[in-house]
Amino acid sequence: MTPVELSRTVLHAVRRAVDVGELRVSVPERVVVGPPGPGGRGDYATNVALQLARPAGQPAQHVAQVLRRHLVACDGIDDVSVTGPGFLNISLRDSAGGSGRLVADVLRCGPSYGHVEQGSGRGVQPHRLHCPCDVRAVVVTDVVARLLQAQGHDAVRVSCDSPPPPEWASLLGVRVEAFGPCNGSSAQADIRPVPVPAPRCPEILALGRDAGRWALLHPAGHDRVRISDEHLVQRESNPLFRVRYAHARTRALRRNAADLGFRPEPGPLSPTDSAADATDTTAARPLLTALADHPRVLAQAAAHRAPDRLARHLVTVADAVLPLLPAVLPLGEEKPSAAHRARLALAEAAGTVLAGGLSLLGIDAPDHL
């Protein structure tokens, strides 16, 4: 069950509670689910009970218990617990079939997993993005345009106060279509992250396209950019290196598996009914959760004009897949099994998400690193 599906499931639980008269509230248009906070448990949590408590005229704990009874009866949900003032903590049922469907979906969509069909963009989104002539603002705006296009908006234009220096296009790969002051159109968004001081712009350009763009995109828009050679070092302390290294490792596994004569096939990560099955599924759960969350991250990054959300999500995917990779290939005289093919498919799905995400950020995803 993906976060979007779980959100709908919680919404349906609210609607059922209202229909049977257990709650007297207006059913919200949507319900937000996310990772459990401090003191939480399970796979996801939601504060919908706290939001409904006042309109319902009931304590949040009571509302949460009402919703819990409806949620535990839903397919795909293993358990629901109430913590704190009324947070619903939801544990999903382990399902090899469910994880296999998710992996198959990623592999079928390829780097476009999480994208929306062109022309079907939802919500009030600007079709013109405007920014000042600052290197960070121009790069961020360039990526926001890519994200909006990936979410179905096919008429996004980028404008800038004045023409950027030509080396920004040649070295950082940015593209600006129009110049001049912002006209205040309702179909326009003015993007202004904390700027990079002009004297430090050459240092960004010296990092090159990939590291330079990452340095500008990884921090949140309200944070200052940290410019140093750390963005170039190839070690674990560099998040860009971890993301690209994880992608390259998944591609190397695919090549090695082909040499051994087997291909990725979504399915159970361990032999059926083996004692290791639950352990392997638990170990893979952070990665499966991150893959399932990828469409939501893309949508939120586009809606909030925040490429940093995608950059941090890619780090999460990389950190979740790297510990799983040593178990993908058979060891010694071991023959490739269905479990090896399933693990290879999961690694392939992670590599696909990393490649697609880096592409949206305008950063190369090399197969060899």
Automatic annotation (TrEMBL):
Q: Give the catalytic activity.
A: tRNA(Arg) + L-arginine + ATP = L-arginyl-tRNA(Arg) + AMP + diphosphate
EC number, as in UniProt: 6.1.1.19
According to the entry, every stretch annotated as the Arginyl tRNA synthetase N-terminal domain falls at 4-92
- GO cellular component annotations, sorted alphabetically? cytoplasm
Against Pfam families, the record matches this protein to:
Arg_tRNA_synt_N (PF03485), DALR_1 (PF05746)
Q: Which residues form the DALR anticodon binding domain?
A: 243-369
Q: Which keywords, in A-to-Z order, does the entry hold? A: ATP-binding, Ligase, Nucleotide-binding
Under NCBIfam families, the record lists: ArgS_rel_codon (NF045898)
Query: Which PANTHER family does the record cross-reference, listed alphabetically?
Result: ARGININE--TRNA LIGASE, CYTOPLASMIC, ARGINYL-TRNA SYNTHETASE
Identify this protein by name. arginine--tRNA ligase
What does the organism's lineage look like at the top?
Answer: Bacteria, Bacillati, Actinomycetota, Actinomycetes, Kitasatosporales
